[in-house]
Design brief:
The protein has one domain. By secondary structure, it is mostly helical. Helix 4 packs across helix 5 and helix 4 packs parallel to helix 6. It is built from 6 helices and 2 strands; from the N terminus they run H-H-E-H-E-H-H-H. It is 50% helix and 4% strand. Strand 1, helix 3 and strand 2 form a beta-alpha-beta unit.
């Protein structure tokens, strides 16, 4: 992990530990209940690898917005797959500005870019976590 990423995480109390990236494979995509990407380009890459994964593949920020639109108060989701199906069903019903789908890649940029990336991730996870807690 690069120093700026480590510092941005430590500023919010996250201890990076031993981080190791790994290449996403078709098998991983096929076996996942949900695939979240940082950008629409990444989402397109996933779908080129496994075109049938459209229903379960979202950008992180897109999914955060969509799950907020799912009416889970009247009929709670019973499982992650149910939540993903509902999010996919409301996709396209809500206008989202193009820039609101993506989290900018901070690689090679300054600490400010890493902080912005971190903050977008935290904002999205904070929106999604309570919904998953009810599943």
């Amino acid at each position: 992990m690069v120093d700026n990423a480590r510092e941005a995480l430590m500023e919010v109390g996250v201890t990076p530990g031993e981080f190791a990236s790994r290449r996403l494979t078709a098998d991983m995509i096929e076996n996942a209940d949900l695939v979240l990407t940082a950008t629409r380009v990444h989402r397109a890459d996933v779908l080129r690898e496994v075109p049938t994964a459209m229903r379960k593949t979202f950008t992180l920020r897109e999914f955060a917005r969509l799950v907020q639109q799912c009416d889970l108060d009247t009929t709670p989701a019973r499982a992650v797959n149910d939540l993903v199906t509902r999010a996919a069903a409301v996709r396209g019903q809500f206008r989202v500005a193009a820039g609101d789908y993506d989290i900018d890649d901070p690689i090679g940029r300054d600490l400010h870019a890493y902080r912005a990336c971190r903050d977008h991730i935290i904002e999205s996870v904070d929106a999604i976590a309570p919904v998953f807690a009810r599943v």
